[in-house]
Amino acid sequence: MTETYEAKIEQLKKIIEKIEDGNTGLDESMKLYEQGAALVKQCESMLAEAEVKITTLSRDK
After folding, report:
1. What is the pLDDT of residue 39?
2. Per-residue pLDDT, 61
3. Which secondary-structure segment (H or E) carries 28?
4. Quick check: 32 and 18 in contact, CB under 8 A?
5. Which residues contact residue 32 at a Cβ distance below 8 angstroms, ignoring those fewer than 6 apart?
6. What's the distance, Cα to Cα, between the start and end of the chain in Å?
7. The dihedral of CA 26, 32, 30, 36: what is its sign?
8. Distance CA 1, CA 32 (A)
9. What is the three-class DSSP state of 5?
10. What is the signed CA dihedral for 23, 25, 28, 32, rounded to 10 degrees?
11. Contact at 8 Å (CB) between 32 and 12?
12. What SS3 state is found at 14?
């Protein structure tokens, strides 16, 4: 099952909150940052795909 864009954004928000809470150590913060960076790339890819679909649909009219 593929996660939705919205679900990925929620994961990013949780990661940001955890990094910023002041209770997360450096090692864990680095791991969270890496996870967040991967999620950002996935979200960017999803947005690019949506843009292509919208452009294609607009041209078909």
Report:
1. 97
2. 66
3. helix 26-59
4. yes
5. 15, 18, 19, 24
6. 32
7. negative
8. 23
9. helix
10. 60
11. no
12. helix
Residue type, 48: A
And the tokens for 28? 């864990």
| Number of Cβ atoms within 10 Å of the Cβ of 15 | 20
> Tokens 């990094």 label which residue?
19
Q: What are the tokens at 7?
A: 């679900």
Average pLDDT for runs of 10 along the chain of length 61: 90 96 95 97 96 90 66
Element (H, E) at 21: none
Q: Which residues contact 36 (CB under 8 A, 6 or more apart)?
A: 12, 15, 16, 19
Query: How confident is the model at residue 1, as a pLDDT?
Result: 58
